[in-house]
Design brief:
Length: 328
């Protein structure tokens, strides 16, 4: 499984069994798609892995996570009431189709400009309210109609289709596991595909990345078959940096032992920027994938091997060095 999933060599398999994390980063010929894969051995059961990923707010806690919250079955702005927009909100004042530093649909641009009380003492408060409503609208559209219901980004002239960007990440891949097709099919066809034995959660997050924080909406799905557990995540919206992103982690036990293996794959399509910013964003994304995934896997092992009674303390301690790459 490890040979097929992360193309592990004999030497890398020995490193994994010695407690090391093995990772690999690949780039597409055009430099816009970055694929990261990795694996690590963990001393935990399927029950523990499942319990941890179900608590996504706790599992994602780290230095780069600023805020996180779940959407309800019928998403509303109240679900994102904790979200705080930083000084990056100023860019919304001049957003126009084809010229905007936020990833936004065309009709969202004038709505945000009108909703924010520019220059007033309560400018920040109105910006928070406006962006919370934007996220709720995005989440509600997705819940009702899936990716096909999402409005295209219009911040650049290419009028990117988010549906097409996501579909591009689902093309045949050598990084496969037994349940990848089942879980990815659920994410691909949501909400039309029945969620038989699949749990899912839709959540928003605000995370440090590059020059400014990234606000995102993510749909995660969890499936358990025997002692194997699959945890997959799909980017629904992000205000910076990416066109689409798709991640998957699989827990597979080693029969007859107390441990198992956690594998990870992430495919990310970097925003089609032009000029010097394009290279910078791609460099940051590639470096974060290459250098950050090993730290992420080591920290995932720590969290999986930490008892519930100590997990909260360990997460606070881990804020000093955690690096969670995208959706893990």
């Amino acid at each position: 499984m490890l040979r097929a999933y992360i193309r592990a060599s004999d030497a890398e398999l020995r490193r994994i069994d010695a407690g090391e994390a093995v990772t690999r980063t690949l780039q597409s010929p055009d430099g816009r798609e970055i694929t990261t894969v990795g694996a690590i051995r963990v001393n935990c059961t399927a029950d523990t892995f499942l319990a941890r990923v179900r608590e996504i707010e706790r599992f994602k806690t780290g230095e780069y996570l600023l805020q996180i919250g779940r959407f309800s079955a019928q998403p509303s702005a109240a679900d994102a009431s904790a979200l705080v927009v930083d000084d990056d909100r100023g860019a919304l004042r001049t957003c126009r189709p084809g010229s905007c530093t936020w990833r936004l649909p065309a009709n969202a641009m004038p709505e945000l400009r009108r909703a924010i009380a520019w220059g007033a003492t309560h400018e920040a408060e109105t910006a928070n309210t406006a962006v919370r409503s934007l996220l709720a609208d995005e989440a509600a559209a997705y819940v009702a109609g899936g990716s096909a219901a999402l409005r295209n980004y219009a911040d650049q002239d290419d009028g990117l289709s988010r549906l097409a960007a996501f579909k591009g990440l689902l093309r045949p891949s050598p990084f496969r596991s037994e349940y990848q097709a089942e879980v990815f099919d659920f994410l691909d066809r949501f909400p039309a595909q029945p969620a038989e034995g699949i749990e899912s959660v839709l959540y928003w997050s605000r995370e440090r990345f590059g020059l400014k924080p990234m606000i995102a909406i993510t749909h995660s799905a969890i499936a358990r078959r025997g002692d194997d557990v699959v945890f997959a995540s799909k980017q629904i919206y992000t205000n910076h940096y990416f066109d689409a992103s798709l991640g998957m982690s699989v827990y597979v036990p080693e029969p007859g032992t107390s441990y198992g293996y956690v594998t990870y794959m992430n495919r990310t399509r970097v925003e089609g920027l032009h000029g010097p910013m394009a290279g910078l964003v791609r460099t940051i994304a590639s470096r974060r994938g290459r250098d950050g995934l090993e730290k992420t896997l080591l920290d995932v092992r720590r969290k999986l091997e930490t008892s519930d009674s100590r997990l909260k303390f360990s997460q606070e301690e881990g804020r000093k060095g955690d690096l969670f790459f995208l959706f893990f």
